[in-house]
Specification:
A hairpin with a 5-residue loop joins strand 4 (about 90-95) and strand 5. The chain starts with 6 loop residues before the first helix and ends in a 21-residue tail after the last helix. The protein is an alpha+beta fold and about 280 residues long. The protein has helices at about 5-20, 40, 75-80, 85, 115-130, 140-150, 155-165, 170, 190-200, 220-240, 250-260; strands at about 30-35, 50-55, 65-70, 90-95, 100-105, 135-140, 180, 205, 210-215. It binds Dihydroxyacetone and zinc ion (ZN). It catalyses: L-rhamnulose 1-phosphate = (S)-lactaldehyde + dihydroxyacetone phosphate.
Amino acid sequence: MDILNAKFVKEMCDTTANMYRLGWDERNGGNISYLLDEEEVAKYLDLSKISRNIDMGFKADPLIGKIFIVTGTGKYFKNVEKEPENNLGIIRIGKDGHTAELLWGFEDGSKFTSELPAHLMSHMARLSVDPENRVIIHSHPTNTLAMNYIHELDEKKFTHTLWEMCTECIVVFPDGVGVLPWMLCGTNEIGEATAKKMKEFRLVVWALHGIYGAGKSLDETFGLIETVEKAAQIYMLTEATGKERINTIKDEDMVKLAQYFGVDYRRDFLNLPGQSIKRIS
Ligand code: 2HA
Ligand code: ZN
């Protein structure tokens, strides 16, 4: 079977194309990694054939034998749909824990995203708290980034403002948004810091750079980032009027939403008495 017809390749093409058209992933901005089911990949590829071994520069022992489809370094989301075989690659984490075995893709000689440490370390962190996690997406969504320049970069305050901007925000990301200070990207250090946040949050802002999202599917993860970006857009649009926001969703209303939809939200991110405990459960 032709791998270009595989659902996971098509989904990667669709997601990168959507993100590019939304203006979130200029030039080579953004990267995606998606943990695949070995049996599904075996329908398209001979898993004993390794086209290249590439050192990752860090250890990912808990992921040994796991297979990911990932975007390539220096590649443009704009071009993934046209040439998936050059812009995407399928890698398996080798037995030594630090080699990526290339099973397909990167046919022009390129390799996986420079943000592989942040991706794989985030996969390990999310899988340790949610065995169903499959996807990590990094992106540079415009309004989320703009908001970084004018809003305090405090996790509680940043999350609270986003929750206030759209009624459904607290339902979509009840665990809130983690925030990392500006750090050098592409390094193991930012990878480790991101993964630490990912134990608590499915969304992590990289200050003045972009955002990381984690989820069970490409759709779910994209939807998380899309919802943050929509809230940030409302924030930026209302800020730009120079007028005071005289109507806001109140903390009491957020509690009603969380209770009605049955979500386990960050109580300590609201400003209500008796809400200092982190979780309902
Ligand atoms: O891969 O977005 O953070 C390009 C980036 C790096
Ligand atoms: Zn980036």
